[in-house]
Amino acid sequence: MTDELDKNKTTYQAQSSETMGGSGPVTPDMDYVRPAEIPEQDLYHGHSFITKWIFCQDAKVIGVQYFLTAVFTGIVGLILSWLMRLQLGFPGAAGFMTAEHYYQFVTMHGMIMVVYFLTALFLGGFGNYLIPLMVGARDMVFPYVNMISYWMFFVAVAVLMASFFVPGGPTGAGWTLYPPQTILEGTPGHGMGILLMLISLSLFVIGFTMGGLNYLITVLQARTRGMTLMRMPLTVWGIFTATVLAMLAFPALLVSAIMMTLDKILGTSFFMPTIIQAGEVLDYGGGSPILFQHLFWFFGHPEVYIVALPAFGIVSDLISVHARKNIFGYRMMVWAIVGIGGLSFFVWAHHMYVSGMNPWFGFFFATTTLIIAVPTAMKVYNWILTLWRGNIRINTVMLWCLGFIVTFVNGGITGIFLGNVSVDVPLSDTYFVIAHFHMVMGIAPLMVIMGAVYHWFPLVAGKLLDEGLGKWHFWITFLGAYSIYFPMHYLGFIGVPRRYFEMYDSPYMTSAVGMNEFISIAAFIVGAAQFILIFNIIKTLKTGKKSEQNPWKANSLEWYTSTVPPEHGNFGERLPVVHRWPYDFSVPGAKEDFIPQTTAPSEVVHTKVEKT
Amino acid sequence: MHAGIIFFLVILGSILFHIFTPWYWTDIASNWKGMDDTITLTFWVGGGVFVAVCLFMIYCIFKFSYKEDRKAEYKPEDKKLERILTWATTLGVAALLAPGLIVWNQYVNVPKNAIHIDVMAWQWGWQYRLPGEDGKLGTTQVVNINDNNPFGINLDDPYGKDDVMIQSDAINLKTNRPVKILLRSVDVLHNWYVPQFRAKMDAVPGVVTYYWFEPNKTGEYEVLCAEYCGVGHYAMRGSVLVQNDQDYETWLSEQETFSDLIAKQKILEVGDTKLAKK
Lengths: 612, 278
Fold this sequence. Notes:
The complex is a heterodimer of chains A (612) and B (278).
Chain A: H1 2-20, H2 49-54, H3 59-89, H4 99-135, H5 143-162, H6 192-221, H7 234-265, E1 276-277, E2 280-281, H8 289-322, H9 330-343, H10 361-387, H11 396-419, H12 421-427, H13 431-461, H14 467-494, H15 513-543
Antiparallel strand pairs in A: 1-2
Chain B: H1 2-20, H2 33-63, H3 79-108, E1 115-122, E2 125-130, E3 164-166, E4 170-174, E5 179-185, E6 190-193, E7 202-203, E8 209-213, E9 219-225, E10 237-243, H4 245-253, E11 256-257, H5 258-277
Parallel strand pairs in B: 1-5, 4-10
Antiparallel strand pairs in B: 1-2, 2-3, 3-11, 5-8, 6-7, 6-9, 9-10
Helix pairs in contact in B: 1-2, 2-3
């Protein structure tokens, strides 16, 4: 048995190197793909409403569930940001706004957007929907665990939202939850609020581990025949690598959450040194607040890439499809994703240059941080080189991609400021940092999410979203968001510190009043513009025309399902067999400007295919 | 087409904003011009890359917009181009990193003649302690802190007796003499930050952290807490008055030392006991 398989493998490899040469005659075993080694997955098909739509085991439904729940938290986060901007632009305009409220909104906004919105949306939402479809699997490998994963996330969100209604309100410790203040009396929500936050995060990590294992094993074990790792769409590479990071990084968050819970309720001192509060010496001693920061950022920095890598992958695919050109330097793109993922575990303390850790660490972490700029820059070059000599459709999807490139490069460059240790000293804890991370891990990934929504909506719903509304949505969002965050960097130069409820009349800050008002108004408009998308979706679902299958003329497998939207099991009777990478656009000699992944070499012998 | 024009205007607007912005650095009042210079350098290199990438993208929008009868180029890889770009980027990054590390090396190595200042932070305020004639600060412990010993100085430490105590959020510094800021917190994280000095560092309960700078411009500056420390964070301000040598020495001689305080308390205690006896 083993011998036979090995022999098959050899013929297969010889075959693919032959087709590399491009045009040639049809040979008998040209289309040979290794036979399946394991039987197909047996799926549980839901019968009732509950098993079909609520406790559903279909990754696509779970993906939509993740997506909708994440969007709900995102809307909460958006409203919180409006309230914060109201206070910053027009202090005192909202009568109920106390400093306690402000800090609670800041904290919940940050935590929601990073963890419950972006992470859940990219991995839980896009990961669940796209991985099985793109690698040619019928479903995730552990559908039942996948279902539990979503419901753990749901409970985590419910616990988080419940903290708004407990005595003392939600925690106001800042999303970084730095002890000792997090669990001491000077911080709002230091009682029930912080406990619920820590419980919610723990639930999130547990649920997320279930989902994450699913994504990894599905990618590693359930790819269809012919889908080699180097033929996977970059979307899958991005989500896959991000999930590896999540599996390694989230445990650090979990242990720090558990330790802090113990410090809070049992009076242990993992993170608590000797402290005097209101003249009283507290019952703590010997703990290290900096230890928490190391644990938090050991999670927190990979977390940035957990959000960014799926965005990198998705945007690569969108650009390639809509520029009608193969992604430039696919292999470089894959290795850059993997390289960035690996390096992201060696840079965490660049968040801590002025934290009071041994300052000699600065040399090491500045170097590793700036090294990461190299693979990241390569990705940017390859995106714009994909546009070069393409045949670019300037549609809504492409606009979001172009908006991504502008905001990502902008935010990436300011990252070089902050990563370069001595430059970080004057800028850290100022609005420069706020502007930087919102540009690079707020707006840029959001641009990709929006592009992806417009791109894959016809697959999920079978209808094309309205282009006109889409363009309005894009331009208001892009121009608005850019005019929020670009000038905000300059507030940081002045030295305006972050997390200030009120600036008062510091002599050199009064000049910032006008800009703060402007930024707030822009923020209100950008937030409101997001409802254009919701309106667009409702309108399209109600009155939109049915779209053709594969309206964008893409090559990847998700567009070649037996029905649109794909049913449970995805591919009908037979799983697709893959013969090439998903980027064969505009191949010389081909009749159409795209060759689907399922097209066998013998069908396109007259073309000059370079990479299979 | 429209898209290309709008993107172009965004880039042009960004450049104009940078040139004409009224919002920029406060005038520097310390020795850390190296930080400003590194930032200016990063601005040139980084800003150049940003503009170049965006203009290339905009050019592609104009030049390669969709036409039914045109076919895109088919070119999966260009090893040579990718290699050139990798090395060019590596060089650029190294050129930015090197000056950054040189400045950092100065930042972590405190000059020998620096005056040590104990900055003690709590929710929500500051106070300061300067070494007395012996030039050394006495050691401290959080548990020692009480009304009679506001800095928690170890009573058996001989260096502590002559320490100058400034129980106020305002402190004076003298020009052209480095100061080593020794940060202490009795409760949560804080950060003693004066934008004009550029430098900052967190105060962490349980340890003493430090940084240094050399004020070189007389004047009064506002101190801001730059690490979130609870609900009073935004109100945790202080002030620094940078003076010339003469004014500074006059001010210093008027300040109370720890032994002054102890003596005063003894008088009070004696008074108390006398009162109690009566």
